[in-house]
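Input:
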Amino acid sequence: MNQILLITDGCSNVGDSPVTAAAQALAEGISVNVIGVVDDGTIGEHGAREIAEIAKAGGGMSRIVSSRQLSRTMQMMTRMTVAGTIRQAVNLELKQLFGLESVGELPPSKRAEVVRVMDELEETSELRVALLIDTSASMKPKLHAVEEAVRDLALSLKARTGRSLVAVLHYPGVNSRIPCILDCAWTTDANRLPHLYARLRMQGATPTGPAILAAVDYYRETCGMINKEVAETPPKLAGDSSGVRSDYVV
Amino acid sequence: MTGKWNGKKYKLERLLGIGANGQVYLATIGRSVCALKLGLEASELQGEANVLASLDRAQRARGKPPFLLDVDDYTQEDGRDVPFYSMRYIPGLPLAPYLKRHGSQWIGVIGHRLLERLAELHEAGWVFSDLKSDNVLVHDYGRVELVDYGGVTAIGRSVRQFTEIYDRGYWAAGSRTADEAYDWFAFAMLWLHATDGKRLMMLSRTRLPQDRGIEDLQRLVRTNPKLRPLTEWMDRAFHGQFENTREALQQWRLANRSKSTAAAAAQSGQSQVPGWMAGLLFISASLCVLLIAVWVFQS
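Output:
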């Protein structure tokens, strides 16, 4: 299970369409969820529409919430996306084997068994979540809340039986050739997560599309993904085994 | 209409398309919809259904839903049997109208999904053969489905069905024996047709058969701003120079990825302050200093 969780507060305004980028991510086996964070005022109709479209194109969910609700929303989304993927796969199997539309059509005794297996899969499957965080100027007041929510997410993921890995990236990056920056390579440890506030760039540019594509590149480089098959062997990474956090520019 | 052997009841809603060997209707069965192909010749239709069934078997391993739903005959009022098969209904626009409506930025994603589909087909031992804009239906966000499997040919056999401008034989680029490269060539032609249809048709009308060749197509690609960044990939597709379709897919992904980075760089270059404006700023700043100096000097 591979996810990109995009956290932003507004529209992209630089680079290729993030909707196309999200569609590309899905084509490569990574679902894209989006959370719009807004505290005072609204995110604007254009922003709201874009957020919904990015998630639809990326096969994921979208929500617009306040920074207070961020933590639980992130956890809910991550879990529901995993459950949704499993449910889709199971329903497909049921359809092929028995011609049933969904789990609901099974008699209760069989249904119980299938749902038990689904829960098992949900708990034990390997999960990778790449957090892609908008650190443009307007996100400044919300970054502390984002940091907390990310830590919380990593903590609950750590509790899973299955292997859960979290990576953190932020955008905008340095320039157009480097649209986003890797803050933390794949880790299972909540304490290794970076302090985003320190990495803030006071820029208006929000290259969401190129940032999503760069995150997909990162997945490919570290997981050796070819056509949705994630490599069985764990990837060799700079920061994973040593205690040093290295700034790796994507 | 009710199937003679399997007894399923269908209601034909509307005509979706007419092909050389039959018509496809949108139909409802109970509460769900499907597409129904009514054929002219029983053995020909069965051949198509066989290919679909074989593909479905290969697809099941990948966890994909079956395409073919029912194969049967229908007895008309005059007593004649009409063969038919039903399949999953695929909504969506053919490639050319989709790109016109949503823009050429979708080329990368659509191409990716299509090559993936072709790779699955090739790995099951089949060549699609009649790849063209009308047979590539695109629905939400670049998701792709192939329709009209009437031309699907086993690798090594002669191509059963093809459309002239997509056929590599027409462009003197290779034989009409079905192999993966046959589909790669048609895939490349898809983009030329969808982004530059007029020029392509003009070319095919004006060139004499003995003069037609890959160089003409390469020139079209190089002079097409939407396709120029993909020139190298297209060249390899025209010449059939990939190891297999998976490699073609990898290269497609890379080529489109560098297309995006190049575009991003170009765009940001434009958003920097243009030189003349910076010059004006300098002049007005100098004027300001001068005026202040004059004022100070006078008082």
